[in-house]
Amino acid sequence: MIALWIAIGVVVVLALSATIVVRRRRPPAELATRTAAPSTAAPRAESGESEAPPAAAPRPAAPPALRERMGRTRGLFAPLRALGGRADTAAAFEAAEEALLRADVGVETTNELLNELRASGVGADGVLDALADQLVAVFAENADRTLRFDDEPGVVNVWLFVGVNGVGKTTSIGKVALARRVEGRSILLAAGDTFRAAAADQLALWAERAGTEMVRGAEGGDPSSVVFDAVQRARARGNDLVLADTAGRLHTKVNLVEELAKIRRVADREPGRVTEVLLVLDATTGQNAVVQARQFTEAVGVTGVVLTKLDGTAKGGVVIPIERQLGLPVKLVGVGEGPDDMIAFDPESFVDALVGL
Amino acid sequence: MFDALSERLENVAGRLRSRGRISPADLDEALGEIRTALLEADVELGVTRHFVDAVRERCSGEVLSKSLTPGQQVIKAVHEQLIEALGGEALRLTYASRPPTVVLLAGLQGSGKTTAAAKLAQWWKQQGRNPMLVGADLQRPAAVEQLRVLGASAQVTVFSQPGDPVKTAVAGVDEARRLGRDICIIDTAGRLSIDEALMDEVCRISKRTEPHYTFLVIDAMTGQDAVATAKAFHDALALDGVILSKLDSDARGGAALSVKEVVGRPIVFASTGEKLGDLDLFHPDRMADRILGMGDMLTLIEQAEQKMDQDVVARSADRLMSGRFTLDDFLEQLHQVQKMGSLGGILRMMPGMSKEIRQAADSIDDGQVSRVEAIVRSMTPKERAEPSVVDGSRRVRIARGSGTSTQDVNQLLKQFKEMQKMMRGMGPAALAGAGGGRLSRMAAARGLGGASAEDSLAEMLGSRPGAAPRPEAPRPAPGSKGRVGRNKKKGGRVTPPKGR
Fold it and tell me: Is A74 part of the contact surface with chain B (CB cutoff 8 Å)?
């Protein structure tokens, strides 16, 4: 009697799906209200934006050349360069498309960029140059790439590092701490990653290298309280900058993202002031990085991007749609394992490295 | 996972399906959209090209012109190619005759090796094995510490010693042998595929420990670079398989689709959460089903929309939801379903069905279904409304009236009771979740159409649990992949607002 089992199953499923179809057709108004609801959760406005002029963050002395580090990317554009002026325009555009797609720029942005190029009527031999100019122009939209620091007495600046698992948040903090100490800032590290086993130990080793203090909590404890304690301690000790680590979390985990929003709120309490929320992105990540950037921005108001692992074969081209669509500036790039391998982002050398001029 | 990809492919399929004739231009357009869908899902460019070319080949002019439903033909080609790309059988793990079975994990920084190592240890422990962890990541600060903490919570011994990673790994394997552990999992430092010194180091670890399995741990969100990385590691280490991490993100599956194609090694494990238990074997066929399954559900719904009498269906569905579903309603539904074609055919379109069920479905003829109908028709109206009144003598009468046996009648009644119970269990609970009124009922119906109902159904139908599909997604208007569509889907799926 397997027929019976199957018959009953089929009937039930169909009845349900048909109901869905019928109901979906009938009350469109109700549907609209339901879908409209989530969109009211607007991204939080940044607080205290214009209170003090941002202090310019000087670049570390003798930064490793980004272009040198990204040398391997050039291979991508080699076919395009080899075409030179000999090929027809269509072939040149095709080569450019391939290079952009392979660099993780994404279909949509690639098409937009190339359509703009086509509209400008550039010839085969000019595609590469025009493309480079265009990319530089994308980055020029978000001109301010300095790390914001409010140099007010009594204010403890908090830089919050957020991102998905394994992008290199803890390592980035360690490197930033080293660089800022060079600048003469008085830094305190907050081991806000209370979830991952031994994350605090990892940060402690960086704190040691950078010669800074670190505040840590119990493993599995409340990360907000760690950040709160760090801000209090910083005030008591006279530190002016807290670098707060957070546990890696996927942007799809609503409750974890909520937790992050709470950390941010707590860090923003007097005397703390969150002056940077840095989203750490892994250069090997594909189009998912755009989704990450969007979700984290909605939840905690990301102010800049740290692009890590750019010294591998990955191109990190995904920052182009992020800059273009979301207006999020890349502020720092990680180009190696050494303590000094965290450098300020320079659009021109990034584009140079990408396109290989 | 993979929602975005299946959604896009469904869009293409939906438009093709209704076409009676497909011109070369139509085909080009469809293939272009498939290409975009794959690229947006981070499938590597070369793999994408190959995929599209293969689909084009399968849809050569002759095939299309001979077919009565050319749209279906194209869709079929896409489906077949997708299965091929995700790749055949799952890897069968075997164990060394002289333990320990050595497992080496390698990968880029931050791909999740240490976590995967601990999860693997836990997984093997659950399989009744006796694993040991070796921490050979002496590079990242506190990596060994992390492994020790994870190992402690999985109750697995962790071995490590400072100094040279190669020596540590070798000593770890010796230690595992000495302690009589049958599996030895070696966690190595994250390294870039272009870092010659570090790649050389992992090669030496591999040579000295002679691992039975070498797995590359790769982040499911990796972009175009996944292929280059996998290739480089494969060239250096001769991989046996891939562990896909962070699959619980909304990653679009590019890495999953690309790596198999380029390296020719299957994805063996997939990690889908932050807990140690969140790791399981990866079944390519099930994943293909997941991407494909939806399309068939959509066909099914389309057909239901076109062929079924919506008022009748809605009426019985209402009763179904409120737990007042009678045998009369069942019969009415059955008639509606039969309008759509053979049960076997319908069943094959339903996602989450195992091969066995599909085969069984093929063997059903509609005569068997009419026997079910005959049984119900041999009942009095009261018996149909209240099956519980059917006692022994009534059973005999019904069996005689329908020309079946009392066993058949019993079975029908039993199944029907089960179904009612299932419906009652789900209906009010789901209704209580949302605010009330028609909207909530709609949401409830959608929720029911999803995991819970189909899970129970799959179980009821003897299918494997867990392979049940997601609820059908409302198809966004052609060309718009806007947020509204996605929101709608989310809104529909998460039935109780604060339930999770």
Answer: no
Rounded Cα distance, A220 and B397, in Å = 67
Distance from CA of A318 to the nearest CA of B (A): 9
A332 DSSP β-pair partners: A306, A344
What is the predicted pLDDT for the residue at B192? 87
Alpha carbon distances (Å) from B330 to B203, B413, B416: 65, 12, 9
Cis amide prior to A38 (ω within 30 degrees): no
Q: What string of pLDDT tens digits covers the 357 residues of chain A?
A: 445 555 566 666 555 544 444 444 443 333 333 333 333 333 333 333 333 333 333 333 344 566 566 655 556 677 777 766 566 888 888 888 988 998 999 999 999 999 999 998 887 778 888 898 999 999 998 878 988 988 888 899 999 999 999 899 999 999 999 887 767 788 999 999 998 888 899 999 999 988 899 999 888 889 999 999 999 999 999 999 999 999 999 888 888 899 999 999 999 998 999 999 999 999 999 999 999 999 999 999 999 999 999 888 888 899 999 999 999 999 999 988 777 888 889 898 888 888 765
> B41 and A9 in contact by Cβ < 8 A?
no
Decide: B137 and B188 in contact? Cβ < 8 Å: yes
- Helix/strand/coil percent split, chain A, to 5: 50, 15, 35
B358 to each of B286, B351, B362, B412, B480, how far by Cα in Å?
A: 15, 11, 6, 21, 35
Encoding tokens for residue B415? 């199944």
Nearest CA in chain A to B364: A3
Q: How far apart (Å, rounded) are the C-alpha atoms in residues A251 and A299? A: 9
- The label of the residue with tokens 């509209």 reads A119
What percentage of chain B carries pLDDT values higher than 90?
Answer: 25
- Are the beta carbons of B438 and A13 separated by less than 8 Å? no
Nearest to B317 among A9, A18, A166 (CB): A18
What are the phi and psi torsion angles at B188 (to 5°)? -115, 170
The two tokens of residue B122 are 């836990």
Question: In angstroms, what separates the C-alpha of B185 from chain A's closest C-alpha?
Answer: 18
Task: Locate the chain A residue with the closest alpha carbon to B49.
Answer: A98
Nearest residue on chain B to A198, judged by CA atoms?
Answer: B146
A219/B contact by beta carbon, under 8 A: yes
CB within 8 Å of A220: residues ≥ 6 apart: A194, A195
Cβ distance A18 to B310 less than 8 Å, yes or no, reads: yes
Q: Is B291 within 8 Å of chain A by CB?
A: no
* Chain B residues closer than 8 Å to A10 by CB: 337, 343, 346-347, 350
Distance (Å, whole) CA B279 – CA B270:
6
From chain B, pick out residues whose CB is under 8 angstroms from the CB of A20: 301, 442, 445-446, 449, 472
Question: Rg (Cα) of chain B, in Å, rounded?
Answer: 27
Tell me the C-alpha to C-alpha distance, in Å, between residue B239 and each of A344, B168, B182: 37, 21, 21
Taking the Cβ of residue B138 and every Cβ of chain A, the question of whether any pair is shorter than 8 Å is answered with: no
Three-state secondary structure readout of B161-212? CCCCHHHHHHHHHHHHHHHCCCEEEEEECCCCCCCHHHHHHHHHHHHHHCCC
- Chain A interface, best mutation among B249, B300, B302, by max A CB count within 10 A: B249
The reply to whether B453 touches chain A by the CB within 8 Å rule is yes
Which residues in chain A have Cβ-Cβ distances shorter than 8 Å to B219?
Answer: 166, 282, 284-285
**Residue indicated by tokens 């360690």:** A174
Q: Other C-beta atoms within 10 Å of A74: how many?
A: 17
Would you give the DSSP letter of residue B387?
A: G
CB-closest option in A22, A24, A288 to B474: A24
pLDDT on residue A219: 83
At a CB cut-off of 8 Å and minimum separation 6, what does B13 contact?
A: B71, B74, B75, B78, B295, B298
